[in-house]
Amino acid sequence: MNNHIEKTLVIYKPHALQRAIVGEILTRFERVGLKISGLKMLTPTDEQFHHHYETIGTVISRHGETVFKNTVAMMKDGPVIALVLEGVKAVEIVRKMVGSTEPKSANPGTIRGDYAHMNYGFSDDNQYGLHNIVHASGNIEEANQEIALWFTPEEVFDYESVHDLSSQKIVKK
User: Fold this and answer.
1) Domain of 63?
2) How many Å apart are CA 169 and CA 173, to the nearest integer?
3) What pLDDT does residue 131 have?
């Protein structure tokens, strides 16, 4: 596989589903040419959340047990949608599109900047997880670990899209 082509994980948090903005956000990813390699709705287990947020994300280590518990409680407000996106430098592109983790600091035009406004202070004062619409892998190593946690190999598909075909034609010229 081309070393510029990457896969990354996006998780739509429960409030994205509750607000009915999943399709709008997915359209943004597709419009830049990212390919959907995996997609499913699920209710994660406590073990999945712990592995995702602490084993991989080190939330407890970095921010403490309270932030971890508040985040998991918020993530249990409903089902989530896990999504594997693939494309040229997908991790970096998705992070740029998603915007800053703290929605009030996210630039307009980013997903968090356009669909959320919460800040860390409000979240902490109310002992609730940060409503920032989606999770996006922070780097390629994290993406690989997260995809392996949320998807079996059979649930991640490999197929050609028009973007793949365009890239092949450009390379051949």
Assistant:
1) 5-172
2) 7
3) 74
